[in-house]
From TrEMBL:
Its main location: cytoplasm. PANTHER family: GTPASE ERA, GTPASE ERA, MITOCHONDRIAL. It comes from Tsuneonella dongtanensis. Residues 16-23 are annotated as: G1. Residues 63-66 are annotated as: G3. Residues 8-175 form the Era-type G domain. GO terms for cellular component: cytosol; plasma membrane. One of its GO terms (molecular function) is GTPase activity. Residues 154-156 are annotated as: G5. This is GTPase Era. Belongs to the TRAFAC class TrmE-Era-EngA-EngB-Septin-like GTPase superfamily. Era GTPase family. GTP binds at residues 16-23, 63-67, 125-128.
Amino acid sequence: MTAETSTRCGFVAVIGAPNAGKSTLVNALVGQKVAIVSAKAQTTRARLMGIALEDKTQMVLVDTPGIFAPRRRLDRAMVSAAWEGAHAADAILLVVDPVKQRRHELEPLVEALGRRPERKILVLNKVDVAKKEPLLVLAQELTGKVDFAEVFFVSAQTGDGVAEMKVALAAMMPEGEWIYPEDQVSDASERLMAAEITREQLYKQLHEELPYDSAVRPEQYIERKDGSVEIHQQIVVGRDNQRAIVLGKGGSRIKAIGEAARAELSEVLGQKVHLFLHVKVEENWAESREIFEEIGLDWVR
Ligand SMILES: Nc1nc2c(ncn2[C@@H]2O[C@H](COP(=O)(O)OP(=O)(O)OP(=O)(O)O)[C@@H](O)[C@H]2O)c(=O)[nH]1
């Protein structure tokens, strides 16, 4: 194989405070929706991967949960999953929201990042809404603390600067065979991705009414003979009154959630979807190992 034809393949870990725009950036790099974007912090519980292609380079993106001070077991699992994704990556992207900087979350992250052996890249996101002067001050401050190999100014939302960043990232990947087939954009199982889509609708439609501690468990996933798919999911909440909120008056809310999720699922999967949602009250589900594993998290002590 000559230098011109050889392929490259590598891992890129995406790290950042909650809401920095990691999921949006992964989607922009992959070019289609794989990670779930939400205005609510800490929505990325499962480690969904996106696979971005740039010419002859394949980049496996590990979209991490927001890293923040862990308190409960659920929080600790999320932090652990995030750093696990960074281990031995060919590049770690630190995504920063320069407008709503979460200093208390960014500081420990920057500190921990300084000790990592992997190549570190600073991504200042949301340039579409950030002011230039403070943006440059922040870039200078962070590059003073961590030895970043490169700094990019992008808007994951508008795509500004993303294509240039993607080319530069691709050049950092080592030569090697591709790990995934060309048409694969995500290795997250369809069951898990389907549950993530429903969870996004839950958050979208219930806003502040529903606390973070609700989960969507994938149950059955049946490919029907007619080419459609039958998906059963369970929405787990911590209390009875939360169940009432999810159901809505006469079941109207869960119906709307189900309809929106089904429409999106059909589009993502490219097939007709029959979606069945059930709500279950399970106190302390956030301490349940079984549910953890079902929503794609490792159980840590
Ligand atoms: N204006 C603007 N908003 C953005 C940009 N990138 C992301 N956002 C918004 O910022 C919010 C958070 O984006 P996400 O991609 O969900 O952030 P995240 O870092 O994955 O969040 P967690 O899953 O909580 O860790 C969403 O409302 C996005 O639409 C950007 O470049 N510009």
